[in-house]
Amino acid sequence: MKAPTKTNKSLPVINERIKFEQLQLIDQAGQNLGVLSRAAALAVADEAGLDLVLISETGSEGVPVAKVMDFGRLQYDKKKKTTDSKKKQKVIKVKEIKIRPKIGAHDFDTKLKQGTEFLDEGKRLKVTAQFRGRENASKEELGRELFDRVHSVLLNRFGESNLISEGESKAGSFWSKVYYIKGK
């Protein structure tokens, strides 16, 4: 018994793989050559030394549309275009620091110093407060005090006009806020 072959749906149907008997043909210059048989369309493509690529299975006249073009060049241009668009994208990096309500003063300063370095580099800073055990009972009060301390340190460092705080999220025993600097 023969195993079924895999077909790649993302690749266009080209040359002999085109199963339609009648095709509306467009040549490499973009001229519409009208409706031709598959054999005649393949002959035109072979004469030009190019590939016959199926563009659409149903054209304006109800006949499939095929174009004579260099298929290798088409693939190269598509790949080049996607890599160029990826180069132009700006990736937003988010760095996270986790703190607890009973954090020591020196540990707090150290973590926020690292956080301000992240903000200076143009990254976003996610500050997550983690509550355990009995701290969950007074999470609102402890969390508010903790984030007030964080916010005041960041405001002193960057100023009120530059520091932007995005929405906060509360999930279970975690409470998070995201900060970033305007213009970076």
Characterization of the model:
The chain has about 180 residues and is of the alpha/beta class. It folds into two domains: about 15-80, Roll (Ubiquitin-like (UB roll)), CATH 3.10.20.80; about 95-180, Translation initiation factor 3 (IF-3), C-terminal domain (Translation Initiation Factor IF3, 2-Layer Sandwich), CATH 3.30.110.10. It has four helices and eight strands, in the order E-E-H-E-E-H-E-H-E-H-E-E. It has helices at about 40-50, 70-90, 105-120, 140-160; strands at about 20-25, 30-35, 50-55, 65-70, 95-100, 125-130, 165-170, 175-180. The strands form two sheets. It has a four-stranded mixed sheet with strand order 2-1-4-3. A hairpin with a 2-residue loop joins strand 7 (about 165-170) and strand 8 (about 175-180). It starts with about 20 loop residues before the first strand and ends with a strand.
